[in-house]
Write a structure and sequence with these properties.
Elements lengths: L4 E9 L2 E6 L5 E7 L5 H13 L18 E6 L4 E5 L4 E5 L5 E2 L1 H5 L4 H4 L1 H5 L3 H12 L2 H34 L13 H39 L6 H24 L6 H56 L8 E4 L2 E4 L2 E2 L5 H15 L5 E4 L7 H13 L3 E7 L7 E4 L2 E2 H9 L11
Parallel strand pairs: 3-12, 3-13, 11-12
Antiparallel strand pairs: 1-2, 1-4, 4-5, 5-6, 6-7, 8-9, 9-10, 13-14
Pfam families: AAA_23
GO molecular function, one term: ATP hydrolysis activity
Subunit structure: Heterodimer of SbcC and SbcD.
Amino acid sequence: MAVKINELEIENLKRVKAVQMTPSAAGLTVIGGNNNQGKTSVLDAIAWALGGNSFRPSQPHREGSVSDPYLHVVLSNGLVVERKGKNSDLKVTDPTGNRAGQQILDGFISKLALDLPKFMQASDSEKANTLLNIIGVKDQLTALEKQENDIYQERTAIGRIADQKKKYAEEQTYYPDVPQAPVSASELIRQQQEILARNGENQRKRDNLEHIKAEKRRLEMQIADLREKLEAMEAQYKSCADNELTAEKTVAQLQDESTSELEESIAQIDETNRKVRANLDKDKAEEDAKQYADQYNNLTKQIEDIRKQKKQLLDGAKLPLPGLTVEGGKLLYNGHPWDCMSGSDQLKVATAIVRELNPECGFVLLDKLEQMDRNTLAEFGEWLEKENLQCIATRVSNGDECSIIITDGYSESTALKTAKAPSSAWKEGEF
């Protein structure tokens, strides 16, 4: 059973002259009053009484009082805690009358319950670490977050390279009308030489025809002078004539091949190969860009998988408040980081976490609840009751939302008694 404060008596501490109160066992007990009346002094007194000398005020003695501070707290587990005398020595008495010291209180009193602002003013990472330590997943989550961060950094670098490769590929010129591989100049030159050889043979045949014709003419001129050799020469002539006919037929069928296309190809080979290399460079750049894009997508999937593991880890943990989680080393409540939460949500989150730090401590102290409007205050009180938490808080107000009013160092009931019977209603050092 969580320990709560059943009764409280304070005298001559800081601004408090005499305050007696019985806080509600669950929900909100609001100490109201104007500024500088002693409201915060009540919380300081409780913190000192239960938290030890680390909470001792620098000047605990009320100014102008001849009596020493006196603190008397009755807890729900039967312990009675007192501080009184010149040195404000601590005395803890159990239900059987045995005495104990601060050590027994430290066993169930949460230091942050006495000093909630310390948690609220902590850094985002400190708040998150507090929660993760409570639910026992800090080391696992830290390892996952480091893994996620490493992959994220790698993915970022890969993404930059992929973008650069893609832009480089897009900037490359592409020629769709050229071969896929560079053209060989030696092959074109070989084809050219074969054609030139065939054309040379054709020319040789043409030259041969001219030679035969010249020989025929020479023979015709000699016929007249060589009648005596007519028969021989006629036979020779007939043979030559036959050769002429054959040669003419052959020459008539000849057709020279053009080397202009090959000459143009040879002349254009450097330009063609430049375009081919440009196409190959573009293809390579696009392939590089695709590979880096694939790597980027793969790393993105790894990050998503790690985030799922983190979510499953936190979803499976027993969190002190629904909607509370940790993401990126920050505390989130209903999706909002600490600095984007309302004041009431911050108080609710802080209270829930502090309670979970030491479930045996069933109360928290809160100062300056004037930041909440009446409706929000009521909602916060209902939440505390539902959680069976006791909260003793201060608020600059004299309204009916206050459980007691502190006026000039007195609780309202004490002040009323004093007004009715000033000589006997209250004496320093006793109630």
